[in-house]
Amino acid sequence: MNKKFLKLELDFDFILLSITSQLRDYRLCHYINKALDFNFEKVDDHEITFVGQSPKFYSKYLYYIEEVTPFYYLISNKGSDGYLIPELKGSDYFVIIKDFIDDEDLQYFIQTARNIPDIQAIVELDPTKLKSKENLIF
Fold this sequence. Notes:
IPExxxVDY family protein; alpha+beta
């Protein structure tokens, strides 16, 4: 009997930043909005559902300008029932930047965010190396 396997390839065409901060999500967005002249707005929570389990929800914010890309998402790592990325329990939030952003803009975002007093750390991560990377797809 021949076995057939289905290989699923996921597209991780985004930039992933990890933020460590004790701030509540809305306060963190407020400080980022002030520092970078952004306008993060609360959107529907990021929902993860696995077969046979109840859904898990993670707070999510979005900032974008209609005529200009990229899209910036701020997602909490701690949700209604556990962690979005369990192997990164030290990370409190993730920033996902979708669509084009050049290195200069990315470095400006990181440096400016590092200057916010209540952010302990902000680090760029490679999403393809994460064990729970499928939780970041939406």
